[in-house]
Design a protein that fits this description.
- The structure holds 2 protein chains of 2 kinds.
- Chain A is an alpha/beta fold.
- In chain A, strand 4 and strand 5 form a beta hairpin.
- Chain A is globular and about 55 Å long.
- Chain A starts with 7 loop residues before the first helix and ends with a strand.
- Chain B has one domain: Methylesterase CheB, C-terminal domain (Rossmann fold), CATH 3.40.50.
- In chain B, helix 1 links the parallel strand 1 and strand 2.
- In chain B, helix 1 packs parallel to helix 2 and helix 3 packs parallel to helix 4.
- The longest helix of chain B is centred in the last third of the chain and has 19 residues.
- The radius of gyration of chain B is 15 Å and the shape is globular.
- The relative contact order of chain B is 0.20.
- The chains are: A alpha/beta, B alpha/beta.
- At the A-B interface, helix 2 of A face strand 6 and helix 3 of B.
C-alpha cells in the first residue's frame, strides 16, 4: 500500500459514503477520513459485519440500520463551558461589544446535544443580554436536536460542568440553573425561551440568516479543506461587518479561502471579527 | 529480521504515567535531523495547555510542537496530541484531530493514534509503547503489528508505571522489548537504515 495507489479499503469507504449520499441525501463525502473511518469501523464491529462493503449493502436496503449509522456518524461529543478560557474571553471581550445592539441574533451551528448552547444562554442571562437575544441552534441530526431541546443532561457530568463554569468566570451558583431529577439535570425552562432548535446541514444547506455572532466549535475539524471552505463561506455571508465568529481552539481560518474576510479578535481563543 | 528491507516512514509513541520523563529521555537522544516524523500521545489533563511541548522542546534537539489539524508530517518534527483532542493520521499522511468520546478513558488516546497511523503507513510504521498505568496502546500496538509494522515496548520492569507496556506485551508480540536508554539508538538505526535502502 502506498499513499498514491488507493487500496481496497479506501475504495470501500468512498463507495459507502457515495451510497449514503445517493440513497439518503446526507453528504459525508467531504468529512475528514480518519475520524469517519474510525466511527464506521466501530459501527461495523457492533453490527457484526466483516467489511465496509457489507455495511454499504445493509444501509442501502435497511433504513433502520442507516438510522443507527447516522447516529454513529453525526453525533458530536460536547460539554458545558467546554474550554473555560474561551467563555471567559467571550464574556470579557465580546459581550461589551454586544451591549449596544437592540437585538442580538446568534447562530450556533452544529450544536449537537446542546450543552454549549445552554452555556451561552447562561452567560447572556448573567450579562443581562438574554432578553434581547435569539439563539438559532442547528444540527443535521434530529435525534440530538430533540435531546438539545429537552435540555436534560446526565447528572454525573454536572460536577465537571460546574468546575468549567467557575473557571469560565461564572459567579453564580451553577445549581440554580437546573433541577436534579433522578440521574439527570433538567435545565431550567427560562434558559430555553429564546433558543430555536432547528435542522440544518452545513454540508448541503445554505445561509441561515443574518447573524451577529456565530458559534461553530469543533465541527470544522471533522471536515476536509473543501468543506471547511464551504462552511466558512456560509459564515462570512451570514455576518455583516463587525459580526463575530467563534471556532474551536484547534480550528483556524489561517489556511482557508476566507481568512481575508476576518480579523483576529482574540487569537488564541479563535474569536474572529468579520471585516 | 522481517523488517530488514522496509523503509520506515514514521514513528508513533504512546505514554501515560511517567511519560514526561520517558519522552524527555527518548526525544533528548535523537538528533535535530532525525529523518522521520514522530507523532506522540501522552495522557494529560484537558487543561494542560502547551506545557508538555514547552518542556520537551527544552530537552530535545528536534522540533517538538502540538499537532495542528491537516498539517503534513515532516521529518525531524515531533508532533504532540493537544490535551483533550484525539490525534489521528490521515491516509495522505497529514494529521487530524477530533473530540470523539474518550477511548480507554483517555483523550487523546494512544489506540486512536496507533490505529489510524497503522492504516496510513502499514509496514512503514514504528510504534513505541512507553510507561503508563493503564492499557491504552495495547490494541493499537496489535494493529501496527497486524499491518506489518514494527512495535517496540519499554521493558515493564524498568518502566515507571508497568501496566501500559505490560498490556502491550499481552496484546501482541513486539519486535523489541527495550530499556528507555536503548530506544532512541534503535530508532536512529531503523530510520537511517530505511533511508539508505531508499536512496
Amino acid at each position: 500500500m502506498s499513499a498514491t495507489t488507493p487500496d481496497v479499503r479506501t475504495i470501500e469507504l468512498d463507495l459507502l459514503l457515495e451510497a449514503i449520499y445517493r440513497r439518503y441525501g446526507y453528504d459525508f463525502r467531504h468529512y475528514a477520513r480518519a475520524s469517519i473511518r474510525r466511527r464506521l469501523e466501530h459501527a461495523r464491529l457492533r453490527e457484526g459485519l466483516d467489511s465496509l462493503a457489507e455495511v454499504q449493502h445493509r444501509l442501502l436496503h435497511d433504513m433502520a440500520f442507516f438510522e443507527r449509522l447516522l447516529a454513529d456518524l453525526s453525533v458530536n461529543v460536547t460539554e458545558m463551558f467546554r474550554d473555560p478560557s474561551f467563555y471567559q474571553a467571550l464574556r470579557t471581550t465580546v459581550v461589551p461589544l454586544l451591549r449596544d445592539l437592540d437585538h442580538l441574533k446568534i447562530w450556533h451551528a452544529g450544536c449537537a446535544t446542546g450543552e454549549e448552547v445552554y452555556s451561552m444562554a447562561i452567560l447572556l442571562l448573567e450579562e443581562g443580554l438574554y432578553d434581547r437575544c435569539r439563539i438559532y441552534a442547528t444540527d443535521m441530526n434530529e435525534t440530538v436536536l430533540s435531546q438539545a431541546r429537552a435540555g436534560i443532561f446526565p447528572l454525573s457530568r454536572l460536577r465537571d460542568y460546574t468546575a468549567n463554569y467557575q473557571r469560565a468566570g461564572g459567579q453564580e451558583s451553577f445549581s440554580d440553573y437546573y433541577t436534579a431529577q433522578y440521574d439527570n439535570a433538567v435545565m431550567h425552562r427560562a434558559l430555553r425561551e429564546n433558543i430555536l432548535f432547528s435542522d440544518h446541514n452545513l454540508a448541503i444547506d445554505g445561509v441561515f440568516g443574518e447573524m451577529h455572532l456565530i458559534m461553530c466549535r469543533n465541527v470544522l475539524i471533522y471536515f476536509d479543506r473543501a468543506l471547511q471552505n464551504r462552511v466558512l463561506g456560509l459564515f462570512a455571508d451570514s455576518l455583516p461587518g463587525g459580526g463575530f465568529l467563534c471556532l474551536g481552539l484547534k480550528e483556524s481560518l489561517r489556511f482557508s479561502a476566507h481568512s481575508a474576510a476576518f480579523d483576529d479578535l482574540v487569537r488564541e481563543q479563535r474569536i474572529y471579527r468579520r471585516r | 529480521m522481517a523488517h530488514q528491507r522496509q523503509a520506515f516512514r514514521a514513528v508513533v509513541i504512546g505514554a501515560s504515567a511517567g511519560g514526561v520523563g520517558a519522552l524527555m529521555t527518548v526525544l533528548g537522544a535523537l538528533p535535530a535531523d532525525f529523518p522521520l516524523p514522530l507523532a506522540m500521545v501522552l495522557h494529560l489533563r484537558p487543561d494542560a495547555g502547551n506545557f508538555l511541548a514547552d518542556i520537551l522542546n527544552r530537552h530535545a534537539l528536534l522540533q517538538v510542537r502540538q499537532a495542528e489539524e491537516k498539517e503534513h508530517l515532516r521529518p525531524g518534527v515531533a508532533y504532540l496530541a493537544p490535551p483533550n483532542y484525539h490525534l489521528l493520521v490521515e491516509e495522505d499522511r497529514s494529521l487530524a484531530l477530533n473530540v470523539d468520546e474518550r477511548v480507554n478513558f483517555a483523550r487523546p488516546s494512544v489506540d486512536v493514534l496507533f490505529d489510524s497511523a497503522a492504516h496510513a503507513f502499514g509496514p512503514a510504521l514504528i510504534g513505541v509503547v512507553l510507561t503508563g498505568a493503564n492499557a491504552d496502546g495495547a490494541r493499537g500496538a496489535a494493529r501496527i503489528k497486524a499491518a506489518g509494522g514494527m512495535v517496540v515496548v519499554q521493558d515493564p520492569a524498568e518502566a515507571e508505571a508497568s501496566a501500559m507496556p505490560a498490556a502491550a506485551l499481552a496484546a501482541t508480540t513486539p519486535d523489541r522489548v527495550l530499556t528507555l536508554a536503548e530506544i532512541a539508538p534503535l530508532l536512529m538505526e531503523l530510520a537511517t537504515r530505511g533511508r539508505r535502502r531508499r536512496s
